[in-house]
Automatic annotation (TrEMBL):
<dbReference type="InterPro" id="IPR014284">
    <property type="entry name" value="RNA_pol_sigma-70_dom"/>
</dbReference>
<dbReference type="GO" id="GO:0016987">
    <property type="term" value="F:sigma factor activity"/>
</dbReference>
<keyword id="KW-0731">Sigma factor</keyword>
<protein>
    <submittedName>
        <fullName>Sigma-70 family RNA polymerase sigma factor</fullName>
    </submittedName>
</protein>
<dbReference type="GO" id="GO:0006352">
    <property type="term" value="P:DNA-templated transcription initiation"/>
</dbReference>
<dbReference type="InterPro" id="IPR039425">
    <property type="entry name" value="RNA_pol_sigma-70-like"/>
</dbReference>
<keyword id="KW-0805">Transcription regulation</keyword>
<keyword id="KW-0804">Transcription</keyword>
<dbReference type="InterPro" id="IPR013325">
    <property type="entry name" value="RNA_pol_sigma_r2"/>
</dbReference>
<dbReference type="InterPro" id="IPR036388">
    <property type="entry name" value="WH-like_DNA-bd_sf"/>
</dbReference>
<feature type="domain" description="RNA polymerase sigma factor 70 region 4 type 2">
    <location>
        <begin position="128"/>
        <end position="174"/>
    </location>
</feature>
<dbReference type="GO" id="GO:0003677">
    <property type="term" value="F:DNA binding"/>
</dbReference>
<comment type="similarity">
    <text>Belongs to the sigma-70 factor family. ECF subfamily.</text>
</comment>
<feature type="domain" description="RNA polymerase sigma-70 region 2">
    <location>
        <begin position="21"/>
        <end position="87"/>
    </location>
</feature>
<dbReference type="InterPro" id="IPR007627">
    <property type="entry name" value="RNA_pol_sigma70_r2"/>
</dbReference>
<dbReference type="InterPro" id="IPR013249">
    <property type="entry name" value="RNA_pol_sigma70_r4_t2"/>
</dbReference>
<dbReference type="Pfam" id="PF04542">
    <property type="entry name" value="Sigma70_r2"/>
</dbReference>
Length: 201
């Protein structure tokens, strides 16, 4: 099976090859968009995301085998045109958070932390909605985009140290150390190591 990098390289000479990338990633990109701006805006945002990706396919860094972080980064920028839809989504999530109990037992790692990440985002919706746009973007690409910190850095076009710095700031803003809420945020720091942390925000 061809890697995304190979498909994009091939599409520079044969544009029709780009359809393979759409078939491979459209569903996951659409799911990310739906969580952010709601079902009504998905089709428009998804179409524009892949149109931009097609036009900029020559800019893709072929050192990366997967184009998913790159595509989610494009989708995030396109969604800036749909802020009103996103505000409504956060208002609905905030209302839901007040009605539901998002308990967390702790000690969860590996793939299960991704499930905890999604639950924590829903449960902490009112506080997440109050974050700065760039901090919220970093958080959601990790929790809902299912990206690593390095992939979030690719999506946003920033150094990985900046992503780590923003993640630390998000944890501090969402819950003080030692609180019940802070336990839900352990998944945000699980990838941080001394070798990957850097300066910048």
């Amino acid at each position: 099976m061809s890697t995304d990098s190979e498909i994009l390289s091939r599409s520079r000479e044969s544009p029709r090859a780009f359809a393979e990338l759409f078939e491979r990633h459209s569903a996951s990109v659409a799911a990310f968009i739906r969580r952010r701006v709601g079902a009504d805006a998905v089709e428009d945002v998804l179409s524009e995301t892949f149109l931009v990706a097609f036009r900029r396919r020559g800019d893709f860094d072929t050192a990366w085998k997967s184009a998913r972080p790159w595509l989610l980064g494009i989708a995030s920028r396109v969604m800036k045109k749909h802020r009103a839809d996103e505000v409504r989504q956060w208002q609905a999530a905030s209302a839901s958070a007040h009605r539901e109990d998002f308990s967390y037992e702790g000690g969860i790692d590996g793939a299960t932390t991704r499930l905890d990440a999604a639950a924590a985002v829903r449960g902490l919706a009112p506080r997440i909605a109050a974050l700065s746009a760039r901090d919220r973007e970093t958080l959601l690409l990790y929790a809902w985009g299912n990206l690593t910190q390095e992939e979030v850095a690719v999506a946003l076009g920033v150094p990985v140290g900046t992503v780590a710095s923003r993640s630390n700031r998000v944890r501090r803003k969402l819950a003080p150390p030692g609180s019940h809420t802070a336990a839900r945020l352990t998944w945000m720091g699980k990838e941080e190591t001394d070798g990957r942390l850097g300066a910048g925000a």
